[in-house]
Write a structure and sequence with these properties.
By secondary structure, this protein is α+β, with helices and mostly antiparallel strands. It is built from 19 helices and 22 strands. The strands form five sheets. An eight-stranded mixed β-sheet has the order 5-4-3-6-2-1-7-8. The chain has a five-stranded mixed β-sheet with strand order 9-10-13-11-12, sandwiched between helices. β1 and β2 form a beta hairpin. It is globular, with a radius of gyration of 32 Å.
């Protein structure tokens, strides 16, 4: 053979840029690596300062142990680390980092300005690096700990910088990374600042308090603690009640030995526990921490260390299942009818020292109601078996809806329904009295002349109750209205039937930091769907117009509902139709303090049972429950 040799050793700067492609994917990756280094350095306070979603600046300031001038320079060399010394140390890792690649990778794609000082030193060290080259190092006065600034990410990889998404999307990734880091390190104070606005300021707290601080007070009453300890693993944390499972935006976190991880196999274990308790297209939220011996796991299988291999994977799967099922069982999640307890009146507290009330009596002992024939009229001899035996017929009369919704409704009732007109006719024949028909009502549901389904009544303005062949059907009125309105709004949004309705008085709404990021992410798309709003600063938004479909709802409530549903991982307008339709349906649906007539309730029942999926709301909450004859018999055993 002849010719020159073609295999050569790559320069360190090129090797670092190649490594950066795996370790540093976006500004959120820089936040993860720097904060994990701060935690490994023993920091109890970490401040994260972001400019322009990390494009211009990612700065992490901690009060950790700091570095000497020599260590500060060595930290940016490839494979330089203080975490391990020999290969055997990989089996006993208790730190977040260990490869010595993160800082070298960051220095290869951005400009570095770092100030660091150990607690016992009188002066610190400032190091400036650009394109993997140390430009200067000098002594400087600074606070103990490390202050590291990463400027102009991907400045030396223009093609990579061009593929960064818009600022709101990139910052949403930073927020998600911040949430993961804050959840797993509850003993550390965290501050997140974006463009000089403080979004989060978290103090050391318990896991539950940290969850509520990050995701809102609504989670406080949804969380169920789990606690299990075995020779293989110790499991702790929280799962949510099944009725709060969500179609999108569920908060799902696994931690192992203080490290975030993704584990599809263990995720499946949690979902298995909810299989019979919630809709199949919804996801529960969970915050589960696993503690295992370091030598029984392998964290060195993924560039970002998100995936971890377990030696006792199958056994841990079974323990997770048992632990979650036990927690759900203790919370009576499997046996409870999960209608919301919101707006239920409080039962007064019993005060044994309060003065009692002695009811008086006013009785005429000479009065006998049976002495007067006119005073007593025996009840009509009803043939109730005959009255209800016709529930096997399909609905009749009225204009068919959606190609035969009456037939669909009859099948929903399981061959147990007849029209109210039929029941009224029987009452007229058997009782000999005239029962007036219900007046025509318009719930804004988009159907003409609905024919109600079966004898029914409304309980406490909350539940619609109707008999069925198998027992007694209970329908949550508010959720049923949400289900019906959602289908209508989704159809109109998809067809482009969207107009904007100006508010008489603009409304100001204060949202969470995450909510502000969500609205900024989709501000343009939401404008196309009829929203007109402006950001006033300090997480406050001013709403001046909403979609005309939801003109009857409070704008502030509508926006809060919408923020809870937005999924910031997508950008397409179509991806907004479901959350917008659901938020409008929730805001416009009937409230528990609204009194409806019988006809309005019957109309809603008809519309609900004519839908393809009436049993659950779009976000997975139960709409219909049936108490069977067997369950009723057991109550009176």
């Amino acid at each position: 053979m002849s010719g020159e040799d073609i295999i050569r050793l790559l320069p360190d700067s090129v090797a670092n840029q190649i490594a950066a492609g795996e370790v540093i994917q976006r500004p959120a990756s820089v936040v993860k690596e720097l904060v994990e280094n701060s935690i490994d350095a023993g920091a109890t306070s970490v401040e994260i300062i972001i400019k322009d979603a990390g494009r211009t600046l990612v700065q992490v300031v901690d009060n950790g142990k700091g570095m000497s001038p020599t260590d500060a320079r060595m930290a940016f060399e490839r494979h330089a680390t203080s975490k391990i010394a020999v290969a055997d140390d990989l089996g006993t890792l208790r730190t977040m980092g260990f490869r010595g690649e993160a800082l070298a990778s960051i220095a290869a794609v951005a400009q570095i300005d770092m100030r660091t000082m150990r607690r016992d030193d009188n002066v610190g060290s400032r190091l400036i690096i650009a394109d993997s080259k140390v430009e200067s190092q000098e002594a400087v006065a600074c606070a103990p700990g490390t202050n590291l600034m990463v400027k102009n990410i991907f400045a030396y990889l223009p093609a990579r910088r061009k593929f960064l998404k818009k600022d709101s999307v990139e910052f949403s990734h930073i927020v998600h990374e911040f949430e993961r880091l804050a959840l797993v390190n509850t003993g550390v104070d965290f501050t997140l600042v974006h463009n000089d606005v403080t979004l989060h300021q978290l103090h050391r707290s318990s896991l539950k308090q940290r969850i509520v601080a990050l995701f809102g007070k609504s989670l406080d009453h949804q969380l169920i603690p789990i606690e299990t300890e075995s020779s293989i693993v110790r499991i702790s944390g929280f799962v949510t009640l099944p009725q709060f499972a969500r179609k999108r935006g569920a908060h799902q976190f696994f931690f192992v030995n203080g490290r975030n991880m993704r584990h599809p196999y263990f995720h499946k274990a949690v979902l298995t526990c909810y299989a019979e308790l919630s809709s199949s297209d919804t996801q529960p939220s969970y915050f589960i921490n696993l503690e295992v011996e370091p030598e029984r796991i392998d964290v060195n299988i993924h560039p970002q260390k998100h995936e971890i291999k377990f030696e006792d994977e199958q056994a841990i799967w079974q323990i997770i299942c048992a632990s979650v099922k036990e927690a759900l069982g203790k919370a009576n999640a499997s046996g409870a009818i999960d209608f919301d307890s919101e707006d239920v009146p409080d039962i007064p507290f019993f005060d044994p020292d309060a003065a009692g009330f002695d009811p008086g009596t006013d009785v005429d002992p000479s009065y006998n109601p049976f002495n007067s024939p006119a005073a007593y009229r025996p009840s009509v001899d009803q043939d109730w078996q005959k009255l209800y035996e016709g529930f096997t017929g399909a609905l009749s009369g009225g204009k068919p809806v959606d190609g035969g919704a009456e037939t669909v409704m009859a099948s929903r009732l399981g061959a147990r329904a007849e029209t109210v007109e039929g029941v009224r006719s029987r009452l007229n024949q058997n009782v000999g009295q005239t029962v007036p028909p219900p007046p025509d009502v318009d719930l804004g549901l988009g159907f003409e002349n609905p024919k109600p389904a079966a004898p029914m009544f409304t309980l406490h303005n909350r539940l619609i109750v109707t008999p069925t062949k198998s027992g007694l059907m209970l329908i949550d009125r508010h959720r049923a209205h949400v289900r019906v309105l959602f289908d209508r709004f989704s159809r109109q949004l998809s067809d482009g039937e969207v107009h904007s309705q100006q508010l008489l008085f603009p409304e100001a709404v204060e949202l969470s930091p995450t909510g502000t990021v969500a609205l900024q992410t989709f501000e343009k798309e939401l404008s196309e769907l009829g929203f007109d709003m402006a950001y006033l600063g300090d997480n406050t938004w001013n709403i001046t117009a909403v979609p005309s479909l939801a003109s009857g709802a409070r704008a502030s409530e509508l926006l809060e509902q919408l923020v809870d549903q937005l999924d910031m991982s997508g950008e397409a307008r179509d991806s907004l139709i479901t959350p917008v339709a659901l938020s409008m349906a929730r805001a416009a649906a009937v409230k528990s303090d609204t009194v409806w007539t019988q006809s309005e309730a019957e109309t809603l029942l008809y519309e609900l049972l004519a839908l393809p999926s009436p049993d659950f709301t779009p976000d997975g909450l139960t709409v219909i429950r049936t108490i069977t004859h067997q369950q009723i018999d057991a109550m009176f055993e």
